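Lecture notes, part 5. Sequence design as translation. It can be helpful to think of inverse folding as translation between two languages: the language of shapes and the language of residues. The source text, in structure tokens, appears below.
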């Protein structure tokens, strides 16, 4: 029997309880630390959590592992208000409400869109183009702030246009500090200097001062924002930087995937 060790990089607090093979995908039963207090959405009572669980497992998409989709499986947790008896979801810290994928899956989708398009990314991930478009809209609407302790030395800013059905332009700030692992840091609506400023504004001043190089499309108004907000950074001209790295990272994982995982 083939055995494969999965090297998982999990968000803080998330632990794996059990692994399950799901056809050509990986299933990870996970747990996360529940909040101890909750505020009722209806009557605003703030009190210690009165926990309720349902038997239905939640299954949400996370990053690929060894070139195959991985899904997190967990039991939904609810808080029951002692005053008005409303039952409300305790939303896990790794996803937003009413979606079936993690925040980091969202950022990965946005990164894959650089130099590609909705249809192509949807096909590669086995999801719908509508889901890809929704992810981009959610990412531009409610950004997760960048961890202020993160050390960022090299960044890229790219422009993305979803023109087919949605007519949406966004600027994407990417962390290129580890060339093998580009990561999306921030996404903002627009393709002008203001959009680039909005992205860079997600970094603290100390973080911006640590940046040594930035890669932006030539002629883009992003340059002006970088010049001002990244005082110690040099511009590097490399038009296809991020796209290339994102796609190589994905392809690299596929190449490393041992045949044994398919047979289980
Ligand atoms: Zn209440």
């Amino acid at each position: 029997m083939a055995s494969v060790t999965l090297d998982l990089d999990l968000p803080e607090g998330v632990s794996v309880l059990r692994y399950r093979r799901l056809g050509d995908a990986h299933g990870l039963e996970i747990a996360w630390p529940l909040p101890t207090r909750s505020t009722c959405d209806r009557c605003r009572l703030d009190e210690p959590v009165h926990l309720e669980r349902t038997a239905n497992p939640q299954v949400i998409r996370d990053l690929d592992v060894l070139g195959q989709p991985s899904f997190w499986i967990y039991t939904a947790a609810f808080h029951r208000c002692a005053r008005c008896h409303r039952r409300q979801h305790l939303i896990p810290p790794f996803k937003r409400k009413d979606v079936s994928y993690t925040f980091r899956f969202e950022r990965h989708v946005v990164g894959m869109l650089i130099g590609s398009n909705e249809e192509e990314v949807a096909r590669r991930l086995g999801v719908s183009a509508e889901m890809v478009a929704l992810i981009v809209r959610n990412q531009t609407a409610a950004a997760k702030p960048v961890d202020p302790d993160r050390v960022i030395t090299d960044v890229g800013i790219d422009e993305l246009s979803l023109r087919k059905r949605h007519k949406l332009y966004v600027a994407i700030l990417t962390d290129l500090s580890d060339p093998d692992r580009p990561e999306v840091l921030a996404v903002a609506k627009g393709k002008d200097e203001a959009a680039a400023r909005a992205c860079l504004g997600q970094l603290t001043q100390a973080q911006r001062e640590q940046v040594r190089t930035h890669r932006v499309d030539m002629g883009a108004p992003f340059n002006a924002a970088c010049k001002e907000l990244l005082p110690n950074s040099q511009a590097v001209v490399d038009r296809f930087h991020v796209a290339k790295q994102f796609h190589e990272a994905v392809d690299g994982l596929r190449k490393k995937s041992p045949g044994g995982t398919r047979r289980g």
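The translated text above is only one of many valid answers, since several sequences can fold into similar shapes. The first helix runs from residue 103 to 113.
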